[in-house]
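One such given next:
>
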Amino acid sequence: MTLPVMPIYIVDLYGSLLMIIFAFLSIRQVKRLRSENPQNVVWIYLLWLCYGLAGFAVSRSVGHIVKRVFITSGHEYLWLMLRPYSGAVNTIMFVVVASITLFFERIWKIYEHIMEDRRALKQAHEQLLYLNKHLEDLVTERTKELALSERKYRRLFEISRDMIAIVEWNGRVLSINPAGLCMLGWGDEDVKVKFFQDCFFNEEDFREVWKRLKMDSEVKNYECSFIRSDGLKFEVLVTGSVEVESERQMLHFWVKDISQRKNMERKLIQADKLASLGQLAAGVAHEINNPLGIILGYTQLLLRQCEEGSEVYDDLKVIERHVRNCKTIVGDLLKFARSAPTQKGEADIHEAITEVLAVVKHQFMLDGVAIKEKFDHSIPRLHWDINKMKQVFMNLLMNARQAIGRNRGLIEVETRLENGNVIIKVSDTGCGIPPENLPRVFDPFFTTKPTGQGTGLGLSVSYGIITEHGGTISVDSEPGKGTVFTLTFPIKEGMNESYEQ
């Protein structure tokens, strides 16, 4: 059975024509798309691909048409001559299409990088537009933040209770906070001419601080002494570090005044010492008191048997006098040890002080010593052992009188309320206490009086009584000008105890 070939020829002829038409329509469509976005590499690739496919369609379709024409017209030998050329053109067109596809793979990678860069540039462009549009607002906001930060740190600098100082490497003080000025007793003008080494009491401490800064670029909690403009020495902790500001080395210092802490430590040591000595004194006093009583008793018996004015009588009187002195010392030791029971009750401090003054005022006036009273009568009644407190006031007044000596002078007794505390001050215009003796004035048996005029236990006993009543005692003195003893009692504690009774 033989199939008709005419339909095949028609399909081959018209199919070839349609292939050419579709190829050029594709080129037209891609050109239109590319004209809308000339930079799109996809449209460029498709355009060249359509060019290649169109060339292939023309080569193949023309070959098929020519073949049918030559065979139909009886010139088959001509087709046989042209067929290799037609096949070669078709092969070249395939190679061109394949080359376009392979070349596009590299172009696509480059295109991806370009698109990434384009997106980055677009983002940067948007940021620049935003910054350009909001630059003034951003600068204003940043300026406010900087101003707020500056105010915050300036406030910390100014309200700090410790010294904060900024110093150049040569030691010149650039800036110091108000607390530092107050601590050193400097004025604003002093900062312009002062050096940081002027703050140190000992030059060796300054050299040690600078040595540590050079070696480690910092110094931490170095304990030393500073000096005020009026010559007063006080103890501090120095912390410093080296900072670089605008290519300049600056030193930042933080200085803490530890004088009160040191005083408290000394008081605690003093309290421990007094407690130990009190226990020792109590034991010694009890052991000595009985033999002294026996000696005194036998001495008095012998005195009755001797004629007054005889040599033996005078010797026995010397023994009696010295035994009584020893018993007085033993009695003071017992008071120092606080062996006597404390009996507290409501009391008016002004009545207690007035009673003590009434005892000594007449004799003081005869000796040329005036007494000035300055009482704050708003002070309420407190819960005290009034007899022991009278002993304290008597000790302080007698010490003040002996400090004035034979010269005319003034003793002032002042009371006042201050920050919830009762303050009692006993001041005199006497000879004062040398600075080296101030830390020892409350030590048992320490006295600067001549032999026989004091046991050195008066202030020690007073210290124990005041501590027992929850108070504190401090002393300030300047040689040649006088001494001030300050007693401080918390009023709230006293009132609460009073109410409990």
User: Anything to note?
Assistant: The radius of gyration is 55 Å. The chain is about 60% helix and 20% strand. The longest helix spans residues 76-159.
